[in-house]
Amino acid sequence: MADNIALIGFMGVGKSAVGQELAELLDMRYVDLDEEVERRSGRTVADIIGNDGEDAFRKEEHDALMAMKGVRGHIISCGGGIVLRDDNIRLLRRIAMVVLLTARPEELIKRIETDGGRPLLEGTGDPLARSEQMITERMPRYRRTAHHIVDTSGLDPGQVAARIIDIVGVSP
Ligand code: S3P
Fold first, then answer.
1. Distance 48 CA to ligand 1 centre (A)
2. Residue-wise over 3-24: b if at least 16 C-beta within 10 A, else e?
3. Which of 7, 10, 11, 152 to probe ligand 1 with, by most ligand atoms within 8 A of CB?
4. CATH of the domain at 36
5. How many domains does the chain have?
6. Is the entire prediction scored with pTM above 0.90?
């Protein structure tokens, strides 16, 4: 098995919940890259994007990922835009078995509305249409990054985690 498992996919697909479940089941360490950005910078993601812009956030996100080089036994939950940089794609594939989580946009939007805190969707008149557009734009990159794809539609985080364990072939 790879040293680490990375979860990628659009906002609201359940990377954090599934990642925590997986870490528990496999006795691995859970790390959320957005939280790493916040810990390292002492600022929230919303503050960085809102005040310094998306590019500044992407740089912080890249640095947080670079800091994962050499770690082992981690479940790495990535922000939805991690695949926007080619160097992130290469690095992720090198350090982890990468699993793409997908779901229908309507399902994602429901979860995003419940969780809140998605600065890139705030202020857009129609978050569903904006999400659909972003997913379409990003999908080739998500697919290029992923070693495996899991459709989470209708599954709870525990069921998704069990499916990933089947796929990556490790026994809890
Ligand atoms: C982003 C997703 C967010 C966070 C930032 C940007 C994106 O993470 O990194 O708001 O570009 O899709 P989640 O996917 O964990 O919500």
1. 12
2. ebbbbbbbbbbbbbbbbbbbbe
3. 11
4. 3.40.50.300
5. 1
6. yes
Q: Which domain holds residue 77?
A: 4-168
* Residue 1 near residue 96 (C-beta atoms within 8 A): no
Two tokens at 142? 């998500």
In a mutational test of the pocket of ligand 1, which residue from 49, 65, 120, 131 has the highest number of ligand atoms less than 8 Å from its CB?
A: 120
Q: Are the C-beta atoms of residues 45 and 64 closer than 8 Å to each other?
A: no
**Residue 46 and residue 122: Cα distance in Å, rounded?**
10
What confidence score (pLDDT) does residue 1 get?
A: 64
> Over the stretch 45-66, which tens digit does the pLDDT of each residue have?
999 999 999 999 999 999 999 9
Residue 52: which residues within 8 A CB-CB, separation 6 or more? none
Segments in the chain below pLDDT 70: 1, 170-172
